[in-house]
Amino acid sequence: MNLEQERYQRWINAPGLDPALRKELEAITDQPAEITERFYTHLSFGTGGMRGEIGAGTNRMNIYTIRKATLGLAHYLHNRKRGDLNPEQSNNMSPSKQNKDDLQVVIAYDCRHQSDRFALEAALTLARQGIKAYLFPALAPTPQLSFAVRRLQADAGIMITASHNPPEYNGYKVYGPDGAQLNVQDAEQLMREIGRVEDELSIEVLRQEEAIDQGLLVYLDEQIDREYVRYVTSLSLRPEIIKQMGDQYKIVFTPLHGAATKPVQAVLREAGFRQVYMVEEQVTPDPDFSTVASPNPEEHEAFTLAIEKARAVDADLIMGTDPDADRMGLVVRDDQGAYRVLTGNQTGALLLHYILTQKQAQGKLAPNHTICKTIVTSELGRVIGRDFGLETIDTLTGFKFIGEKIKQFKAAGDRQFLFGYEESYGYLIGDEVRDKDAVQAVLLAAEMGAYYKAKGLTLYEALLDLYEQYGYYREDLISVTLKGREGLQQIKQTMAMLREHPPHTLAGQPVAVLEDYQTQVRHDLVQDKQEPLHLPASNVLKFILQDETWVCVRPSGTEPKLKLYIGVKGESLDEAENKLQAVKKALKELVSL
């Protein structure tokens, strides 16, 4: 009997196994391939925590994998309290928190299948270990979880979400006391603790009533909602513009069936926007995301109903957020009056330029203000920042690395965080949240749109002005889904092939620089010299061509995907688009897609 069959038999024969999970396992008794997929490995943490399909098995999201992860977290927190782990290995634990008598964890969840149950299971697992859990009583955005961890001075946070993944997925993200997702060192410590939990089926949890009676399960009230809304509203840069334009600037908003409805409505209302139209078919939380193929604002199709609504009400701006409200997409009117979906890079550039111009005009722009972006995000932001005399710092993909930078800035006192963003529709303006925050982005995007309308411009025209001033930057992403063990092997083989046989040219352009973030070496091929990359080791390759076009290849940290990013610059939109398509074609041929 192989390992997968042994694990399968242990599960199906476990006394007291959840009846629904037992029924699943009984249905696949004669399906060895399915058994293998469910049991060949244990779900592990990536750049965005732990994600997987919901179902029975060690490689699935279920109450037992939730308990295992949470018990590992409990051991991790207890060890930190006792000082059993080296504090120098962590950037997420402040010395003052190590001596606390009582450990506290905040738990939130989104609209996905079993999210509320998984959140409760996590809370009751913690309670059994003597750790107090503050549990949101209803679905809440990921950024509000980050905010609550900081506001309640908790030791950690758990968010049950799979972000924009398909309906069959759920996930589990862990946050440190600074409100950021665990950094690399802390995540490794946590994974070691989770790995020491040998039998996920025998983990004990406290009964809900007992946990409440002992004060180890506390349901949060609406006070934390009000504080979050008040904080986000305070980030407005030009409240007088909203006062001037709030009655005429028309906004269509869709939460794509997720957690953003209430906080977004509250923030926009409190800020002063009066013409806000909701996409009614997508307001109700729905774990099946029944009106869209994918609940992802990166996908143009997700805005189909919103665009219909916008045409009906003659809206100026469309905004949409993903299920856990950490990503936001914009749809703007172009010069022909048609609605056009912006990329994350375009929205990020617009927001950055707006923040810079307003702060500069108000005399609030400091020389040490710093912009953070990921290595796969457009270079346009760096050029804009440089025009204002500011530095842009690159991080690895994953917003936790931007959250980590914010903490480092505050600890060193040499920099001030100004704005952080990534190409995948994640933005952060105010650092009382340490993860990307779509609610903040909604407010600033609406204000920005109203500001430009007051000047007689649309956001599309503002974007064209940026291109005219700084260059025509275009980016794209090729995302290849490769599921299961075979898919994982194919991803590994592709990355190995690119390392062993890197291209010398792409689309007729010589490769000038090769950056290998796994070996942490930058190789200048023109001058034949090497220098270190000062970022954590990661399985990422970046090729920079002679004309400054760049290509970056990495496995996804949260989905069974290989991701290939492309960035180009042209003298016009047409030239940039032609270069982009040529590089995409060459890249697909290179990796045999």
From TrEMBL:
MF (Gene Ontology): magnesium ion binding; phosphoglucomutase activity; phosphopentomutase activity
Listed cofactors: Mg(2+)
Domain Alpha-D-phosphohexomutase C-terminal: 538-569
GO BP field: glucose metabolic process; purine ribonucleoside salvage
Record carries keyword Metal-binding: yes
Pfam family, any one: PGM_PMM_III
Catalytic activity: alpha-D-glucose 1-phosphate = alpha-D-glucose 6-phosphate
E.C. numbers: 5.4.2.2
Pathway: Glycolipid metabolism; diglucosyl-diacylglycerol biosynthesis; Lipid metabolism
InterPro entries: A-D-PHexomutase_a/b/a-I, A-D-PHexomutase_a/b/a-I/II/III, A-D-PHexomutase_a/b/a-II, A-D-PHexomutase_a/b/a-III, A-D-PHexomutase_C, A-D-PHexomutase_C_sf, A-D-PHexomutase_CS, Alpha-D-phosphohexomutase_SF
Stored PROSITE patterns: PGM_PMM
Keywords assigned: Carbohydrate metabolism, Glucose metabolism, Isomerase, Magnesium, Metal-binding, Phosphoprotein
Gene3D superfamilies: Alpha-D-Glucose-1,6-Bisphosphate, subunit A, domain 3, Alpha-D-phosphohexomutase, C-terminal domain
Residue stretches making up the Alpha-D-phosphohexomutase alpha/beta/alpha domain: 100-196, 227-336, 344-469
Keyword Magnesium in annotation: yes
First-tier enzyme category under EC: isomerase
Family assignment from sequence similarity: Belongs to the phosphohexose mutase family.
Name by which UniProt lists this protein: Phosphoglucomutase
Annotated organism of origin: Caldalkalibacillus thermarum (strain TA2.A1)
